[in-house]
Every structure is written in C-alpha cells, then in structure tokens.
C-alpha cells in the first residue's frame, strides 16, 4: 500500500510542477514563508486521496524515503 502512495505522490508532484509558475522552487524554501505552490497542490491531492486531515498529508511524505 505504501508503494501506491509513493507512486501517487510522484505523479501528483510531476503534474503539480507542470502547472505552476516556478516548478524549480524548493518544497520548503529557506527562511520560512510556507510551502512552494507545487508542494501545496501535491499535499491537497494527498489530502483528497487519503480522505485524511492535512496533518496526515504533510506527515506521509516525510515517512517515504523515495519522495
């Protein structure tokens, strides 16, 4: 099941990066200020796919070494 989420996350990242203005922006820019736009889109997609809270959506990628 984890590999399905990893695959979903990789696809979501690729699609999100294809529609944002700055796809090369780091996911969590130094100095704070929040996540990159593509990262927010990916987290939203995970939130919808999992049917869980945003907290779970944010925690899940940190537990996947390949993402």
UniProtKB/TrEMBL annotation:
Name the record gives this protein: Transposase IS4 family protein
Organism: Halococcus saccharolyticus DSM 5350
